[in-house]
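Appendix B: complex inputs.
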Amino acid sequence: MSFEDAEKAKGYWNENLKLVIKLLAIWAFVSFGCGVLLVDILNQFSFMGFKLGFWFAQQGSIYVFLILIFVYVKKSNTLDKKYGVDE
Amino acid sequence: MDVQTLTYIVVGVTFAMYIGIAIKTRAGSTKEFYVAGGGVPPILNGMATAADWMSAASFISLAGIVSFVGYDGSVYIMGWTGGYVLLALLMVPYLRKFGKFTVPDFIGDRYYSQSARTVAVVCAIFISFTYIAGQMRGVGVVFSRFLEVEVDTGVYIGMCVVFFYAVLGGMKGITYTQVAQYCVMIFAFMVPAVFLSIMMTGHIFPQLGFGAELLDATGNSSGVYLMDKLDGLSTDLGFSLYTQGSKDMIDVLFITGALMFGTAGLPHVIVRFFTVPRVKDARSSAGWTLLFIAIMYTTIPALASFSRVNMIQSINGPESQGVPHAEAPMWIENWEKTGLIKWEDKNNDGRMFYSNTETNEMNVDRDIIVLATPEMANLPAWVIALMAAGGLAAALSTSAGLLLVISTSVSHDLLKKNLMPNISDKKELMYARMASGAGIIMAGYFGINPPGFVAAVVAIAFGLAASSLFPAITMGIFSTKMNKEGAIAGMLAGLSFTTAYIVYFKFVNPAANMSENWLFGVSPEGIGMLGMVINFAVAIIVCKMTAPTPQAVVDMVESIRFPKGAGEAHDH
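Resulting structure:
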């Protein structure tokens, strides 16, 4: 066990889960939400020359995916340091 | 110099480069063969994984598909990128900490069961084989179109090149070759797309040109947005609205999901993240991979719409009167020779016309959209040569990655871990090379005698990955309670449901393959997501009724949840 005690291990895992759930909620919202389910509503708005829903489906979702991964990398590295389990 | 000679030179130079890299970086141990010694820097690994991921189909066909179906094509755009978020957040850091060589390694150890390992091996081999058959065909097709050799000869040449560097180099050779292949592929794809974007909208970045106003004949802004033009043309010519498509929302949802979860369950993608030195590298490497994929995947829909407008206007003319065939642009004439564009003058007016009604006189193959872009943008012959090299790079890099999974599954998972546990490292390496040799021969056979169902089986590959491996892996990480009975029952339930559904609609009763007959309106392409839900449900129910996980396994799961002490990928 690399953690000081079981309490710390649990704390680390819970914080990690919270982070992952938050990011996956955004992931599902932009792809399944904005790109598919809400596409007709969003298509009523125009964005940079696109219908907004169509833009999410063919461009925007990919940019958000990228941001999500790099935010996760940064936050999880910080979390590792906080609990002293980084490499 | 003519196009033909240039193409030979460019393709020859790239092939020599791949083989040279393979010789320099060849593998000496099983660890180098399976996971490149675990020492690949995350950015390079990202590039190699992107090349591994983007196949001949991505390079040659995807823009064409999006171009012809508009919004409906978004399932591929989102589906084949969104899976990387799942990989980064749910899988690769933990699997890297686990630190073995293969996906069946994890399933077998986590579920303390040889049967679970066997189910995973069968899935891995099956998924990889369905994929590689299509790749070898792609190699043959590129050769035959650009170099005017027989498709079969093209397949043989492709087999020799892949054999040389995959068998010799293993993961180490493949990884560095794929870095080179990524560069060739992305350069070949971007050059025509950028020029087409400048020509039509004045923007250097296709992603921006996509949303811009079209330029008129004099090079001034015409005040009409590309997307509005496209929607207008679709309506006028009887196609469904470009930005809306024609698929049901539920089906779009399920196909997108099946492709995303399938991506996250594909063995040849997952193993790539075993090759980096540390857990944090595995996380960032997934980000780099998606960045390198995104360069191409955000360009694809842009290129699709540029080409769509360009193609329709070249055929129908600015006033939609039809262009006289005698005045058709060069590229139409060139591709008519290959049979990929056909014109039949139904009303005998000597003019071409393209529409979705009975006035249509054109038959245009979807692959034209990418293959003809250099000519549409009036680019010089060397760009066409580059397209051939790019298509080959895409096909070869994916084949090599798949081949590695097949050989690893045979030599490591089947022989070393199952049938002959006492073989030496050297013997195992020899078997790995033999297995990849046999894999190439089988792939080549399918390339020369393509089964008519390649496109259909790709749906199975993603469906299987989503409905079998993805749930088993994620439950193995995020639940300490999931036991072997639950995991095996879940995998088998997801697997058999998905396979049965696809086989029924694709092979047994293809006539019934329409939305009225589908379960909840979900097509065979999207059923993997439902299979995944079934897998989770069955696993949880069975787990509740059977014996708990042994303490040693619980400890193992807890130890892969934090990075410290990952060390190198190891065997024991």
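The longest strand of chain B covers residues 221-225.
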